[in-house]
Amino acid sequence: MSAGRTDVTIGVLALQGDVREHLHALTSAGATARPVRRPEELERVDGLVIPGGESTTMSKLADVFELREPIRKRIEGGMPVYGSCAGMIMLATEVLDGRPDQQGFGGIGMTVRRNAFGRQVDSFEAPVEITGVPGPPFHAVFIRAPWVERVADGVEVLGRVSAGPAAGRIVAVRQGNAVATAFHPELTGDLRVHRYFAELVGEAAG
Ligand code: GLN
User: Which residues form ligand 1's pocket by a CB distance below 6 Å?
Assistant: First the structure.
């Protein structure tokens, strides 16, 4: 798993959301991380994290900052990308309970439902085992999170909620170099998902 380059730079899409937390998690995981707000900044990164936040706002700002097409093209070209929560929604090819005008970047053939866990349950925590991430189940924090309702052929399910009322729901997926989680590893200090992604970026660059 760790045969790739280590001198890679990972961007965090810095339009809205928990940008600082991802920059901090990536740096703590040993990666070089930079905020990305402009197309020129996107050109200089080897991989991109799309943070948690609010996907409808991120969608609007992606247009204002003229980043939608550049990001879409880089993802199509194989740039590794990781989306958490709102970032997962931005990577989905289909969104249920979205705003009619919200648009993402694509990258993962999946249907996600926004705010899927129910309006009463704004946030909750649950154990999740993730394929390819060694160690004990992830202590996953969900905040008005989506879940994945359907995946297309070629999409690997990496994790499901393993206990509680939402047990069995798909919350981590990967298609090629695109990875998404419905939860927020950037908030818990558990760096395993960020390390996993940094290794993927290194392999893709190597
Ligand atoms: N509900 C938010 C959205 O639709 C996602 C929440 C989050 O990222 N914590 O974008």
Answer: 52-55, 85-86, 89, 114-115, 143-144
